[in-house]
């Protein structure tokens, strides 16, 4: 498969290409949606694409937070359809990341309530923040679609470059 530098270059060029296509073909292009799409695309391409299923540059880019991907690495075999599925890979990573954020928030609140605020209910607060996020996503469907679309498509591009690279290697 291409190394991380090649993946980075592909991510930057395809993000620029997708933006140019959007502004050329969309009947009423909105710059804010293009910014959200590109930000999500670059973030996912740089640190949240298929190779989080092994100790990779993408994984190291999470720095001290890299531990959140350890269960994912244990559960998902490298280059399986779960991590490198063209659309499924990104969908799984979004769901996993959101679930881990909720779990971290719950854990942090649990520790906080134990030491400082015994009356605080960590589960109720986490559930409340989760519903606020869902409410925000429903209230802003275009922005949500731009973010999710950019995130998933970066994974698709990663997987397509892996498959193309392997195909060329086998063939030539
Ligand atoms: Zn890969």
What attributes characterize this protein structure?
about 170 residues; mainly alpha; binds zinc ion
Describe this structure in words.
With 172 residues, this protein is mainly alpha-helical. It has one domain. Helices cover 76% and strands 0% of the residues. It has helices at 4-25, 31-47, 57-60, 70-75, 81-84, 88-115, 122-139, 141-171. Helix 1 runs antiparallel to helix 2, helix 1 crosses helix 8 and helix 6 runs antiparallel to helix 7 (122-139).
Biggest sheet: strands, sense, closure? none
Tally of structural domains? 1
Helix/strand/pairing class, anyone?
mainly alpha
Q: Low-confidence segments, ≥5 residues, pLDDT <50?
A: none
Order of helix and strand elements from N to C terminus: HHHHHHHH
What percentage of amino acids are in beta strands? Answer: under 5%
Summarize the entry for a quick read:
The chain has eight helices and no strands. The chain has 172 residues and is mainly alpha-helical.
């Amino acid at each position: 498969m291409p190394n991380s530098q090649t993946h980075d270059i592909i991510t930057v060029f395809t993000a620029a290409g997708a933006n140019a296509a959007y502004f050329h073909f969309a009947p009423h292009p909105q710059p804010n949606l293009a910014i959200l799409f590109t930000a999500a695309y670059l973030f996912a391409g740089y640190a949240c694409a298929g190779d989080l299923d092994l100790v990779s540059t993408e994984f190291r880019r999470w720095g001290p937070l890299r531990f959140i991907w350890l269960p994912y690495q244990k559960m998902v075999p490298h280059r399986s359809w779960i991590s490198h599925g063209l659309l499924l890979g990104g969908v799984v990573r979004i769901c996993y990341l959101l679930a881990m954020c909720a779990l971290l928030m719950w854990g942090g609140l649990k520790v906080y309530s134990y030491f400082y605020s015994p009356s605080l209910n960590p589960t109720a607060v986490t559930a409340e923040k989760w519903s606020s996020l869902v409410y925000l996503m429903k209230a802003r469907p275009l922005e949500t679609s731009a973010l999710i679309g950019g995130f998933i498509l970066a994974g698709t591009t990663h997987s397509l470059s892996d498959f193309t690279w392997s195909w060329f290697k086998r063939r030539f």
